[in-house]
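Practice problem: predict the structure.
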Amino acid sequence: MEKAIVKFNGGNLAMLCSGCSVIIKTGVDFTPEELEFTLGKRKEVLPPQYCEKCKSKQNEKHRRIKS
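Answer:
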Protein backbone atom coordinates (compact mmCIF):
# COMPACT_ATOMS: atom_id res chain seq x y z
CA MET A 1 0.00 0.00 0.00
CA GLU A 2 1.40 3.35 -1.00
CA LYS A 3 1.14 6.25 1.40
CA ALA A 4 2.47 9.76 1.83
CA ILE A 5 6.08 10.11 2.96
CA VAL A 6 6.51 12.34 6.02
CA LYS A 7 9.89 12.73 7.70
CA PHE A 8 11.75 15.10 9.95
CA ASN A 9 14.13 17.54 8.30
CA GLY A 10 16.29 19.40 10.80
CA GLY A 11 13.66 18.84 13.51
CA ASN A 12 10.79 20.02 11.31
CA LEU A 13 8.15 17.90 9.61
CA ALA A 14 8.44 17.62 5.84
CA MET A 15 6.22 15.87 3.31
CA LEU A 16 8.16 14.33 0.45
CA CYS A 17 7.04 13.57 -3.07
CA SER A 18 6.19 9.87 -3.30
CA GLY A 19 7.81 9.81 -6.74
CA CYS A 20 11.13 11.62 -6.39
CA SER A 21 11.41 12.42 -2.63
CA VAL A 22 11.73 16.20 -3.07
CA ILE A 23 10.23 18.22 -0.19
CA ILE A 24 6.80 19.43 -1.28
CA LYS A 25 5.47 20.77 2.01
CA THR A 26 6.76 21.58 5.51
CA GLY A 27 4.91 21.00 8.76
CA VAL A 28 3.76 24.60 9.16
CA ASP A 29 1.92 24.25 5.83
CA PHE A 30 0.23 20.92 6.69
CA THR A 31 -3.54 20.89 6.73
CA PRO A 32 -5.23 19.76 9.98
CA GLU A 33 -6.02 16.44 8.24
CA GLU A 34 -2.38 15.91 7.23
CA LEU A 35 -1.25 16.59 10.80
CA GLU A 36 -3.75 14.06 12.17
CA PHE A 37 -2.43 11.38 9.81
CA THR A 38 1.16 12.26 10.67
CA LEU A 39 0.54 12.12 14.43
CA GLY A 40 -1.29 8.81 14.14
CA LYS A 41 -4.67 10.20 15.17
CA ARG A 42 -6.32 8.49 12.19
CA LYS A 43 -6.28 4.78 11.42
CA GLU A 44 -6.25 5.09 7.64
CA VAL A 45 -3.18 6.34 5.78
CA LEU A 46 -2.64 9.54 3.84
CA PRO A 47 -2.47 8.72 0.11
CA PRO A 48 0.75 9.33 -1.82
CA GLN A 49 1.53 12.97 -2.54
CA TYR A 50 3.41 14.14 -5.64
CA CYS A 51 5.29 17.25 -6.79
CA GLU A 52 4.12 18.99 -9.98
CA LYS A 53 6.86 17.36 -12.06
CA CYS A 54 5.86 13.82 -10.99
CA LYS A 55 2.14 14.64 -11.41
CA SER A 56 2.87 15.68 -15.01
CA LYS A 57 4.77 12.43 -15.65
CA GLN A 58 1.89 10.38 -14.23
CA ASN A 59 -0.67 12.25 -16.34
CA GLU A 60 1.44 11.68 -19.44
CA LYS A 61 1.63 7.92 -18.72
CA HIS A 62 -2.14 7.74 -18.27
CA ARG A 63 -2.70 9.56 -21.57
CA ARG A 64 -0.41 7.10 -23.37
CA ILE A 65 -2.25 4.11 -21.87
CA LYS A 66 -5.65 5.48 -22.98
CA SER A 67 -4.43 6.09 -26.56
